[in-house]
Amino acid sequence: MHLSDFNTLTFDCYGTLIDWEGGIAAAVRHWLAGKGLDKPDDAILENFANCESTQQRETPAMLYPELLARTLHRMAAAWDLAASKAEAATFGNSVKDWPAFPDAADALRRLKKHYRLVILSNVDRASFAHSKAKLGDVLDAVYTAEDVGSYKPNPRNFSHMLEKEAAAGIPAAKILHTAQSLFHDHVQAKRHGLVSAWIDRRLDMDGWGATMPPEAPVTPDFHFPSMEALADARDEER
Predict the structure, then answer these.
(1) I need a surface site. Which of 154, 173, 184, 214 has the fewest CB within 10 A?
(2) How many CA atoms lie within 13 A of 64 on its CB side?
(3) Is the whole-model pTM more than 0.90?
(4) β-sheet bridge partners, residue 196
(5) Which one of 5, 12, 185, 204 is the catalytic residue?
(6) Cβ pair 21, 45 in contact under 8 A
(7) 165, 196 in Cβ contact below 8 A?
(8) Cis ω on the peptide bond leading into residue 99 (within 30° of 0)?
(9) pLDDT at 134
């Protein structure tokens, strides 16, 4: 199997292209500092993963800013704290501040020479617009949780993407799903018959960060430590 076997890359955005763990941790640390408190990043991200995934299951049609706000309320309760409506709303709108990984925009520009580039993301379109501006004008299609009415790892999100891509003339066999999260993306990608590439942004870190552990064992077909490494591997094949 070769990277050149595919003509379309479908991406998770947050965790793969956008440093959501850095953005989440910074926003929560700022909120905690206002209370004279501090928590290590690992504790912040583990609490976030538990609370966000629960909220997504309970309110799958909720737009992401409101879902993030509810997530902060849950995180606060788990720490025996309270978040005001204004504090929760600030966190809910923090996606605009989450930075792109330093290699993301250039890697997408390089990969654009070989592939259609498609986003399958767990946010709303308004939030994603802020991230898109950081990644460059290279995307051929964007499918969000707002479009589907559910959040990954719900299988509906992958079914929606595959239906839309099939309508655009792209069969599943020509798609390489590219993502960091085993929990949100790789298990469902394999269940939908897709080949997948793991962008292992947490390669040298312990734990699962801002994601839950995968609900089933999964082995991605390709494994790279960064988007730059993926782009390098594709250029080397050429």
Answers:
(1) 173
(2) 22
(3) yes
(4) 177
(5) 12
(6) yes
(7) no
(8) no
(9) 96
| Tens digit of each residue's pLDDT (9 = 90 or more) over 90-106 | 999 999 999 999 999 99
Tokens of 154: 């719900």
E strand or H helix at 118, and its extent?
A: strand 116-121
Establish whether 137 is a catalytic residue: no
The alpha-helical segments, DSSP class H, found in the chain are 20-33, 41-58, 64-78, 85-92, 104-111, 125-135, 145-148, 155-167, 187-191, 227-237
Query: CA separation (Å) from 44 to 161, 193, 214?
Result: 31, 34, 19
Angle at 162 between CA 156 and CA 167, to 5 degrees: 125
DSSP conformation letters of 144-181: EHHHHTS-TTSHHHHHHHHHHHHHTT--GGGEEEEES-
The SS3 assignment for 117 reads: strand
Distance CA 99, CA 135 (A): 10
